[in-house]
């Protein structure tokens, strides 16, 4: 029998590290978000903005050329690179988030073959997971720190089973995912499961309004941003998943579940973060 996962407590969760008065943007990492294939520039923009919202110092979006005008109009704070991209010149403090809107064409395969050889911290989501499912664990040739964020459909592909089988025993599924691919895992959906090094939890926050296109892309950017500002992988996992879900609850309380957009979750992230800050300040 598998051990139960304990519910995380938002009320007791530590917030972001306090910024030194001498801080500069180089103090808070550099996230590279790799995705934004044809027709999916929005996923790239959502993930990139989310990385900035948790304090990442610099964000570079790496997307298909067709995604770039959209990105420049919607997120002028990000720098960008076109596909095909190479990653030989990444700075020491780089964190990669790979998958949002990536697509599964040949260019995406080539990008993933290179990223699997890199040693910087990485968050894998969406089409990066679909390509990983096709190649199997041999795609991951280094033991880089990797966070994987499948929804049940992606988890099913990674395990070669049905979505119904994943959902019938979600704990068994996440345990098998880690056994097969290593790394840190979130199995998304109602009561997302988290499996890290010291983390074996579930998140009871969130709501079905979050079942809307792009909300997973926001989570990917949050997780990469938290790694970039210096949180360890376990803490990034638990804070990132709860922050995303709490922001979804704040946004749903304002908008109603049916009207919720992924951008509303993103817009509520600062308020969710302020709840943590104010609690720790004793307000
Ligand atoms: N604005 C954009 O550019 C957007 C781009 N997106 C991108 O579109 C690509 C395809 O991703 P999709 O996730 O839509 O397609 P997928 O085919 O990977 O996943 C959708 C399927 O997964 C299963 N599934 C997902 N969550 C489930 C749950 N909680 N319970 C049971 N079954 C579940 C269902 O069978 C569902 O039909 C990705 O690259 C993604 O990043 C999407 O994120 C939507 C928004
Ligand atoms: N019913 C639900 N209850 C709580 N959270 C949900 C629910 N449905 C979706 N979510 C959350 O919303 C996000 C959806 O991610 P994903 O399926 O990858 O969407 P997309 O591919 O459109 O970005 C996940 O973080 C998931 O946990």
TrEMBL record:
Residues that, per the record, bind AMP: 188-192, 216
One GO process term, biological-process aspect: nicotinamide nucleotide metabolic process
Entry annotated with the keyword Cell membrane: no
Keyword Ligase: no
Coiled coil ranges: none
Catalytic activity entry: (6S)-NADHX + ADP = AMP + phosphate + NADH + H(+); (6S)-NADPHX + ADP = AMP + phosphate + NADPH + H(+)
Cofactor: Mg(2+)
Highest taxon in the source lineage: Bacteria
Domain named YjeF C-terminal: residues: 8-276
Pfam families named among the record's database cross-references: Carb_kinase
InterPro entries: Carbohydrate_kinase_pred_CS (IPR017953), CARKD (IPR000631), Ribokinase-like (IPR029056)
Molecular-function GO term, any one: NAD(P)HX epimerase activity
Binding site for (6S)-NADPHX: 43, 101, 151, 217
The enzyme's E.C. designation: 4.2.1.136
Keywords attached to this entry: ATP-binding, Lyase, NAD, NADP, Nucleotide-binding
Gene3D superfamilies: 3.40.1190.20
Subunit structure: Homotetramer.
Entries under HAMAP family matching the protein: NADHX_dehydratase
Protein's job: Catalyzes the dehydration of the S-form of NAD(P)HX at the expense of ADP, which is converted to AMP. Together with NAD(P)HX epimerase, which catalyzes the epimerization of the S- and R-forms, the enzyme allows the repair of both epimers of NAD(P)HX, a damaged form of NAD(P)H that is a result of enzymatic or heat-dependent hydration.
Matches recorded under NCBIfam families: yjeF_cterm (TIGR00196)
Family assignment from sequence similarity: Belongs to the NnrD/CARKD family.
Protein name: ADP-dependent (S)-NAD(P)H-hydrate dehydratase
Organism expressing this protein natively: Acidithiobacillus ferrooxidans (Thiobacillus ferrooxidans)
Gene this chain is encoded by: nnrD
């Amino acid at each position: 029998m598998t051990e139960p996962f304990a519910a995380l407590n938002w009320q007791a969760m530590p917030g972001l590290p306090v910024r030194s008065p001498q801080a500069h943007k180089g103090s808070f990492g550099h996230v590279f978000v790799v995705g934004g294939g044809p027709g999916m520039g929005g996923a790239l923009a959502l993930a990139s903005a989310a990385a900035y919202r948790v304090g990442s110092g610099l964000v570079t979006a790496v997307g298909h050329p067709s995604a770039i005008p959209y990105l420049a109009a919607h997120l002028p704070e990000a720098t960008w690179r076109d596909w095909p991209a190479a990653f030989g010149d990444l700075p020491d403090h780089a964190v990669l988030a790979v998958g949002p809107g990536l697509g599964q064409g040949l260019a995406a395969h080539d990008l993933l073959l290179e990223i699997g050889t890199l040693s910087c911290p990485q968050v894998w989501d969406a089409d990066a997971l679909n390509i990983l499912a096709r190649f199997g664990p041999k795609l991951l040739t280094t033991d880089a720190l990797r966070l994987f964020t499948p929804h049940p459909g992606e988890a099913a592909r990674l395990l070669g089973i049905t979505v119904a089988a994943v959902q019938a025993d979600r704990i068994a599924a996440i345990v098998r995912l880690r056994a097969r691919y290593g790394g840190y895992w979130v199995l998304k959906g109602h009561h997302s499961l988290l499996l890290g090094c010291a983390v074996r939890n579930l998140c009871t926050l969130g709501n079905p309004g979050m079942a809307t296109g792009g909300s997973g892309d926001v989570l990917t950017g949050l997780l990469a941003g938290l790694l970039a500002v210096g949180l360890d992988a376990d803490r990034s996992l638990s804070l990132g998943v709860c922050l995303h879900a709490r922001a979804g609850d704040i946004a749903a309380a304002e908008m109603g579940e049916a009207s919720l957009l992924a951008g509303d979750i993103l817009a509520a992230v600062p308020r969710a973060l302020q709840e943590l800050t104010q609690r720790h300040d004793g307000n």
